[in-house]
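Two proteins, back to back. First:
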Amino acid sequence: MTRKRLGFFTRLLDDASPKERYRLATEQIRHAERHGFDSAWIAQHHFHESEGGLPSPLLFLAHVAAHTETIRLGTAIITLPMENPLRVAEDAAVLDLLADGRLEVGFGSGGTPTCFLPFGLTFEERGAAFADHLHVIQSAWRGDSLTHPDNHLYPPAPQLADRIWIATFSVDGAVRAARAGHGLMLSRTQPRPADRLDLTLDEIQNPIVDAYLDALPPGHRTAHSGLPYGVRRRQRRLCAQGRDAGPHETGPAASRCRARG
């Protein structure tokens, strides 16, 4: 049996200066590694100190990689619509080499409307921008030519195409992630519908997880970490039906599933 693995997620919310926040987060991850944690995940937030104040997660993780050896390092998430996708692809490729293959890359579309305008986007445009930027990154990591036949990503990073995680609040987003073979990232802070504020997290997210599991391509299996009770019930049902519910895998504290070929 594959052993369970344990990860944690942090938003860098210490009541401290930016420099001290980053130092404390680095020490937190080093401490977690020493005590057997398998992964550490950090959030990206632009402009708002109260949301964490880390606009450059890959740069921060490069620093952390130099001070750790075994713990996997993940983004949860990079707000992809606001980024230059080729820069993300290149920076992640370099970081994964520096981290000896420990990088996991989580992407999302973002949820703070006022943050998009400085990047030349409206909040309503984020979905289309996310899809376009994700396509560019995947193409670069696959080694496809980039506009000109002589342009290819350097350093090559085909391995990162298998370490993409997608954050979503919707069934449709989960289905798209599953069909692409990406991991699923869910948030404990998912908003309730205005007319159903009484819903529990399980009631909101179980349909998302069910849709993800059902949409996985044939031959894929799921791995999971930190899943809520309702999801574990779903996995027990799969086992009872003779379907593979998969091994446990590294992940953040946020609930998530992972597709594996």
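And the second protein:
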Amino acid sequence: MKERIAILIVITAICIMGLVLTASAEEVTFSQVDFVFTNANVPNSDWGRIEVDVAECTANQGLDEGYLNIYTDGGWVVQNLFIDNASGMDNDTMYFDLGVPLGTDVTSLSAYLEFTADPLVTFGDGLRSNYDVDTVYYNAEGIGTLLTSAVPRPMPPLVFDPTGETWDFTKPNKKGENVQTADCQCFPMSIANSLQYLENRYGLPVPHDHKIGLKGDNSLVGKLDTACDRSVINRTHGDGVWFDDMLEGKFKYLNETGLADKLVHRHQGYGYGSGALPIGDFTKHGITSKDESVGGKVTFEWICEQLKKCEDVEVVIQYENKTTGSITGGHAVRVFGCGKTNGVPYLRYKHDRNQTSQGDPNDEIGLEEPQVKVKDLDGDGMPNFGSNDTEICFALSESPKPTDVPILTPIGCILTLLAILGFGVIAIRRTYKR
């Protein structure tokens, strides 16, 4: 009996501690980021990136879902990356601090990886393995005429609350809901990605195909380019779009295609620069977006509420130059998931990190679905976006009007609404999906 108890104790201890992950090249890919913004070219940056093959990782570790933590010479650099095989995602991605001086060419990384069923509040070093490090290029910008002139700093280590809530809400994913993006085309593309999701999920009758496109053609993103009158030379040379022009262009497209009365629109925040939205509801082409800002700002709670209510969400992040105190540019993405890990909030989003730039001449790479921590690091009421120097300044949501989707409304949304009303259905599981 004592022997059996001892074995049980050992097994329990292993389960609590987690699985030491000696990952193969098929499971994880490490990269160093080269920033190739027009006005901020920084090769061999201090940013790292990890991409995890979800199916390989969960199968090899024997868990359907769990949390990946990584320790390097830079410390606890990847903190509680949530990985699950129920989201329909092929890969999970997170950016992190390489912990090296700018200009250091990193070709290999010594790292200790651990995959656990539950998140960790502390994490230390362990038996390391060496991993090859390749290069990825980053050119994700396109808001207004401002071009990014300073590369943001990586996210500092965060503190997790052992009593903080832990949950995840992720929308289902289908192929074709994230498409290769032209230079500075992120704002129209984020909306095109959302409209394609609404067509796939609820049958919204979007008349144009969602594919690679440009102003003047018959693609969905090309029509949005045209509607907002984005200045374009070709796929490698184009300007960004201001907030007011993009929202007006979106409403113009919906009105011209007979979709004006099919969706409900809301927003938080007003953006920045000469093209920021005015305070209050925004109406163009017979369509209104209701202003639900909190003190003029975006909140994590609002984004999650929209997602759980079956709305689709795009957010704009602003790049800040902390030296000058100015905003130097921004980037738009489609958000498809949110959650908290021991009280620390995060989002899942889709975008193209390259946007037809260096390293992607044929529009073949750059699409990704990262997970990013969005804790307000400086206490200004704006969620940071994976860095001290990036913040969410604008969020836009759209959803089918209830009368248009009486049958297609998924049970996950019904359960979520019941939970919001106080029935507590969703509270049965820590992790829930729609």
